[in-house]
Amino acid sequence: MSTSIRRGESRTRRYRVTSLADAHNRHTGPVLQDFPAPTMLYPSNSALEGPPVPPDHRVYFYSADEWERFILEWVCGLKSDYVQVKKPGGSGDRGADIAAFKSERGFEGAWDCFQAKHYEKALTSTNAFPEILKILDSVVDEYYSLPDRYVFVSPKGCGQSLNRLLSQPTRLQQDFLNYLDSNALGAKYDVQKLEGIRLLTKSIDFSMFKSLELHEMLETHSKTRYYSARFGTSLPDRPPIKQAPAIPSPNETVYVQKLLDVYREQDDASRIDIESVVDHTVYGQHFQRQREAFYSAEALRLYARDSVPDGTYELLQNDVFTGVIDTAEANYESGLERLRAVLIQATQLDLGAHKLISVSQLLDRKGICHQLANANKLTWVDSDD
Q1: In what order do the strands lie in the sheet with 98-101?
Q2: pTM of the full predicted structure?
Q3: Which residues are within 8 A (CB) of 110 and not within 5 positions of it... i.e. 6 or more apart?
Q4: 168-214 pLDDT, tens per residue?
Q5: Which of 23, 97, 328, 332 keeps 20 to 30 A from 56, CA to CA?
Q6: Nearest 5°: CA angle at 304, between 252 and 116?
Q7: Helix, coil or strand: residue 138
């Protein structure tokens, strides 16, 4: 933060609150809420028809509710640049729709304020000045410390006149001072409060007030798991799949035990266990292939966590289960036959409606079967086998 801003903050401590409500707000401080996780609004089989519509054109025509959902998704991308991103609660946000903290000290440390406005037209100074007044009033009351940046966020952006003002901080400051001198504010603010705001206005660097262009918002949003589903774009490239470790990890216990049951059923005399199965002349390679499939599916699950909305991978997993359960419940001479039949069935399922299929491979489908076994939804050796 610049020296001028720090100086402005120190001067605000001399201002007196002018009402019991101000005193209450000053001592209690703002109520902060976590942003709720965006809900999944996109079917797994959503597809574009006809020429693709650019994301910025889509956002341009959003309703107020859709804009709010977009903001929730955008905040998920914003979090990577800050320690915390919070929503000051209710109607008492006092000029801060989104508070992005740069340290664990919250409002007592460095922070950025994002003011998300949804208007049918581009923002003008008539829209902006009352919002600037709110945040400076809150700083005078020591409700907030002065943010490093105050950023207007709107689907239609800022109009030419406001953009010009935001690019000329000195003129913006003077025009805002003229706004403070207008008679319209006299009914809401007493003389002492207006003078405090006026002194703060003169002491700070008005380059802190900025606008965020839609293309910048879309760039941030593109790094979230919601971008592809919202705008119908291709999924990002999937990273290389790590090889299964030599020794099974604790999270493999259940499905590995079920594989051992298969091998023991086939060769009970050999007493196959976790230590000996790897080097087994008949089942060693089969065992390793199943583990590679499991790790491939786990890699897809982790990829989905960062690339698509919540629940997308679970929808795929559930459809695999639906597609193989009848095969798994049929009668077989052995658990090995059941396992092989289920894995073959999984590779033949029509899963083209699922978004993740574009980045998946047949090995993932087999691995999902072992994930289901790990969750005790599939079992290979039946008690009657």
Answers
A1: 32-34, 84-88, 98-101, 111-116, 149-153, 209-212
A2: 0.63
A3: 1, 101, 102, 103, 148
A4: 999 999 999 999 987 677 667 888 888 999 999 999 999 999 999 88
A5: 97
A6: 140
A7: helix
